[in-house]
Design goal:
The chain is of the alpha+beta class. The chain is 27% helix and 21% strand.
């Protein structure tokens, strides 16, 4: 389904009961974030249209913040419908064409593909109905999202760049910090396509033209986030998703084309000869601040917009947030291309919300031979943005990977830690703060498939199944012996999951490594395969938080401690250090970021106006839960 414009999508959300209009003034400076954070983590999760922003422009947020709204944005009933369409098309194109009749049968499919290709139209588009005589980005309700953010950020920009040597367009999404009426940052990471375009302009000594679109069909926003190969036009994907080609118009001051139905267009350039600007910090999708660094300056030359433009925005932070559902769409949509072109043995894939996209991936395969999981591991880590994956779990086709208890049981039953967990290192996401070196760190694959004879450790064929002890651990006795242990969660043992969570107050070098060795020497831990350690401020009984913190804070190769089995018939063990790393205790030389928390003043302001927002029953701030986990004021943790 193609939306005529963003207003069409808003009308659809409202008709489906998925939108709440808020007429009360809510300040884009921190307050909107606090309202959205409460709503996105509640049972009343809706898209919000803030009609009183202190500017002439209403602000739409959380518009794709649920499974249903993500489906509405892409015009489908189920996200798997898109994967099915892609798979059908792949089979049509790749099947043998033995005669002229077979080739003629392909004509409708080829005609359909042609209908998805973007088209340049003459004249001005809706996006150019109003031309700002003096462009000023501060006239829009650009949000400051979190207290320690470096300033206000544009968070849903669809950014258009052109490779100067071949003219190929890229459409991406990179946050933009606003420094003034005509100046923002351009936060593209070193691995991104637009960063590659920038490097080419730098070689040529030319200014780089850029155009930013906000609003329009929500498919444009999704397409800008999609992990497409560099030479595939994002607007072809958009055309496929909306089943209608994207109409583009030329910008007024830059030689770039943008969607005619967008709400707002920001035109400008980056000068590669100019010094970069210090950008950030920014409360990021990891739930931590990404720290300040230097990025190119974007100079605004023109701003145009629709007469009744709506400013689209989003927030990211401690999951769940809207970006989790955008990621879910990518997981489902790109499953078919991965299966059809790269790893045919993959049956399904799951990206748990707590893994914030790249940290944790679960893959279900049809296993056919020894080492099959490792073959999949190597293929996955070599596939586009999957190179950023930190923890890959591979299971058999009988496991329901949407049931995390079942996945954890498969790990407990099938994993011999010293034999079935594989460590590597390579490129990591720029936002990964756990790496000892910037954007380069450890990763691991957990082979939780049923083992064939060739894959089993030692000469004896032993079952690695865990025998549950219903009594669990003597927690108080353990805490008395190891006083640095603050909390122990062993309830998973009762579910045939050989895993324990422990929160620890670290006080010396190599503390977790030594504690791990001592615990696994105790009889109580003889049948426990996995212990996950988190810092003392984390509630060890909160499974979602433990997984989120552990997956963020772990450098898999550096922070995994294997305790080998004493004999072929015994089980091995592993401990994962999911605590924060410091110079004093871990010889960690990089700054460690704080987690995201709204300040008390903002919480109080939103509390006071809640009844006037029309959002139903009062929802307390999620930040109240995390206040004790913030170490100090500021984006950086100070020791």
């Amino acid at each position: 389904m193609a939306y005529k414009n963003l207003q069409h999508f808003i009308d659809t959300l409202e008709r489906e009961g998925e939108l709440v209009r808020i007429k009360e003034f809510v300040d884009p400076h921190l307050e909107i974030t606090e309202v959205v954070d409460r709503i996105s983590k509640s049972n009343n999760n809706k898209a919000l249209l803030f009609e009183n922003t202190g500017t002439p422009f209403p602000l739409l947020i959380n518009s794709m913040g649920s499974y249903k709204r993500m489906c509405l944005a892409l015009g489908v009933k189920e996200l798997d419908d898109i994967s099915g369409q892609i798979e059908k098309l792949f089979k049509q194109l790749s099947s043998p064409k033995e005669n002229i009749l077979d080739k003629i049968k392909m004509l409708p499919a080829l005609s359909e593909i042609a209908s998805w290709m973007p088209k340049v139209v003459s004249g001005k588009g809706e996006c150019q109905e109003v031309i700002m005589s003096d462009p000023d980005i501060t006239k829009f309700p650009v949000m400051k999202c979190w207290p320690e953010d470096g300033g206000p950020f544009i968070t849903l920009p669809v950014i258009h760049t052109i490779e100067p040597n071949n003219g190929i367009r890229n459409v991406g999404m990179y946050r933009m910090q606003v420094f003034g009426p005509k100046l923002t940052g351009m936060h593209w990471h070193k691995h991104k396509v637009s960063a590659g375009h920038f490097n080419e302009y730098k070689k040529l000594g030319k200014k780089m033209p850029i155009a930013v679109a906000l609003g329009g069909d929500p498919v444009y926003t999704y397409a800008a986030t999609a992990p497409l190969p560099p030479n595939v036009d994002e607007y072809m994907l958009a055309g496929f998703l909306r089943k209608k080609k994207v109409e583009l118009v030329k910008c007024l001051t830059q030689d770039i084309h943008v969607p005619a139905d967008a709400d707002i267009i920001i035109e400008g350039y980056v000068d590669p000869e100019e010094e970069n600007i210090l950008e950030g910090p920014f409360g990021d999708h990891t739930g931590y601040y990404s720290l300040a660094d230097y990025y190119p300056k974007f100079h605004i030359t023109c701003i145009t917009h629709k007469k009744n433009a709506v400013y689209p925005s989003t927030i990211v932070g401690i999951p769940p947030q809207e970006d989790a559902w955008i990621g879910k769409a990518t997981e489902r949509i790109f499953l078919a291309p991965i299966k059809m072109t790269l790893i045919p043995e993959i049956i399904d894939m799951e990206l748990p919300i707590e893994g914030v996209f790249h940290n944790l991936t679960i893959v279900k395969i049809k296993k056919e031979y020894p080492g099959h999981a490792q073959k999949v591991m190597n293929a996955m880590w070599g596939a586009g943005q999957m190179m950023f994956n930190k923890i890959l779990v591979v299971v058999d086709e009988k496991v329901n990977i949407k049931n995390y208890v079942e996945v954890a049981q498969a790990i407990s039953n099938n994993v011999d830690p010293q034999n079935d967990i594989y460590f590597s290192q390579g490129p990591m996401d720029v936002l990964d703060h756990s790496c000892s070196k910037f954007a380069f760190g450890g990763k691991m694959c957990v082979d939780a498939t049923v083992k064939l004879i060739e894959e089993i450790r030692g000469e004896k064929v032993q079952s690695s199944k865990f025998k549950v002890q219903s009594s669990g651990l003597e927690k108080e006795k353990i805490k008395k012996e190891f006083q640095e242990i603050v909390g122990i969660y062993d309830d998973l043992l009762q579910k045939n999951i050989s895993m324990v969570f422990i929160s620890v107050k670290k006080n010396r070098k190599n503390h977790i490594r030594e504690l791990n060795q001592k615990l696994f020497s105790l009889p109580a831990f003889s049948n426990v395969k996995i212990v996950i350690y988190v810092e003392d401020t984390v509630d060890a009984t909160d499974i979602a938080d433990v997984v989120w913190r552990f997956a963020n804070n772990l450098d898999a190769k550096r922070d995994s401690y294997v305790v080998e089995a004493t004999g072929d018939g015994d089980i091995s063990h592993i401990g994962f250090d999911g605590t924060r790393k410091t110079k004093e205790h871990d010889n960690f030389q990089r700054d460690w970021p704080n987690i995201l928390c709204t300040d008390e003043e903002t919480i109080k302001k939103v509390d006071e106006k809640w009844e006037r927002l029309g959002l139903g029953k009062f929802i307390k701030s999620p930040s109240l839960k995390y206040r004790t986990q913030v170490y100090n004021k500021g984006a950086v943790v100070k020791d």
